[in-house]
Amino acid sequence: MEKAESLFDTLTALQASKKLPPVKSWQPERSGKIDIRIATDGTWYHDGDPILRDAIPKLFATVLRLDPHGYCLVTPAEKLYIEVEDAPFLAVDMEVRGAAPDSDLLFTTNMDDYILVDAEHALRVTDVDGHPRPYLHVRDGLEARLTRPVYYRLVDQCRAEGNDYCVYSAGKRFILGHT
């Protein structure tokens, strides 16, 4: 158990030390569109072909921003809009520390971000054609959709409270569904 605690703390510290470009403050004059698409399964495509080198989407993800007109890759020189079919990231793993209501939930994304669920990084579940679709807020309006196995692991952490099914993380309650 001590090893798991150490890993949890290490991953949380690693995320806190990440330095991302200040894309929110960049307002380039040049704007356009580029044929990049992030598919529902998390695959990045350029000109219809999958981007095979993992490092390229991970680099692009650091300059990804959600504007009122859509998702875009932003540099100080230009802003290029891209297509995102669902959410730009996937939550591909989850670690749990403690037991509800004193638990912490730490998710790993397909872009190697480690996100502790808290007030700033909330969980939400929407209904799509009668099926739940769970999301985690990563940063600045960008979300990760939980993969099915990760969602099932999250559901294992649920507690029934009144008419709600909820989980706890960082002292906050997140409702995943209702009876």
Q: Please bin the fraction of helical residues.
A: 10-25%
**How far apart, in Å, are the first and last alpha carbons?**
34 Å
Strand residue content:
over 45%
Tally of strands = 15
Q: Sum up the overall morphology in one term.
A: globular
Rg over CA atoms: 17 Å
> How are the strands of the biggest sheet laid out side by side?
3-2-1-6-5-4
Unreliable stretches covering 5 or more consecutive residues: none
Class by SSE composition: alpha+beta
* Mean pLDDT figure: 92
How does CATH name the architecture of the largest domain?
A: Roll
CATH class of the largest domain: Mainly Beta
Question: Any overview of this molecule?
Answer:
- The protein is of the alpha+beta class.
- It has two domains: 2-84, Roll (duf1285 like fold), CATH 3.10.540; 89-178, duf1285 protein (duf1285 protein fold, Roll).
- The chain has three helices and 15 strands.
- Strands 3-2-1-6-5-4 form a six-stranded mixed beta sheet.
- The longest helix is centred in the first third of the chain and has 16 residues, at 2-17.
- It is globular.
- It starts with a helix and ends with a strand.
- The model has no long low-confidence stretch (mean pLDDT 92).
Name its key features.
15 strands, six-stranded mixed sheet, duf1285 protein fold, globular, duf1285 like fold, 3 helices, alpha+beta
